[in-house]
Design brief:
homodimer; alpha/beta; Maf protein; 6 helices; 5 strands
Chain lengths: 154, 154
């Protein structure tokens, strides 16, 4: 995937580091970010907050908000991206939240957020396809969003 | 993959939960553990400790040991599996550490550890193949090891 190779290359050149906070993708974004050899210069770590308890524990998301939203909202995704950046002391924090399905009214609804020193952006999208497709496509879209955020900040 | 489906099924039936701590696999094991719909009943979360700083921060591995071992040893993998179980308050904790390569003398050397209430086991292996093969094969082997640990404890 060209944009992944491009992203890692530009991050290395600019000495920028990344951390993640993932829910429905459950590690797939972090796996992608480390596909290239030498990615330890860029990727520092991530937290997989698959449960509401984990979202509360690591990112202090209040339980009433978690219960109301099932842990999925623009606000929560931004908090996770900002939090990942802070916890791992990286230049960039990225988060993925959503409903991977296959059951439920909101299947395919995902939020991707990317934070850097200039602030945080969040994209809300609906991804069509199987559970696996939703998780993988969202992870690839997060790569693009990180790339755009990095390039726009240079 | 039959053993993955078997594992999730048996964990659901027995009401057992899992958490992870991953280094070289960087989320791939956690991605596998959530491939099945409804896996949120089983998988609670994970920490991707790709950097030495993250291994120290989340699992209190001392820096002298991290520097001496490059963050990869039987002792560290056990600490990570036990720690994941404790941090996420799950029945089972699983960890993966290793050298995915493609460069370096120890490429393919990996440690997988699985902890439950009876203790912790650790397997040291050398996996042949590309960087991606090492990461994926190790994750699938971790699934098997969790399965064996669960079945042997029933």
């Amino acid at each position: 995937m060209r944009s992944l190779a491009n992203l890692i290359s530009i991050l290395k050149t600019k000495n920028l580091t990344v951390a993640t906070a993932e829910s429905c993708s459950s590690g797939y974004l972090s796996y992608l970010l480390t596909k290239t050899a030498g990615s330890s210069k860029v990727f520092k770590g991530g937290i997989i907050v698959y449960s509401l308890e984990a979202k509360n524990k690591f990112f202090k998301i209040p339980y009433p908000l978690l219960r109301k939203t099932q842990g999925v909202s623009s606000e929560i995704s931004k908090t996770l991206a900002l939090g990942a950046r802070k916890i791992f002391k990286t230049d960039i924090g990225a988060s993925i939240l959503g409903f991977a399905g296959p059951e439920g009214k909101k299947v395919g609804l995902v939020y991707i957020a990317v934070a850097n020193k200039t602030g945080v952006i969040c994209k809300k999208m609906v991804i069509k396809g199987s559970r696996d497709t939703v998780r993988k496509k969202t992870s690839f879209l997060a790569i693009k969003l990180i790339y755009n955020k990095v390039v726009s900040s240079l």
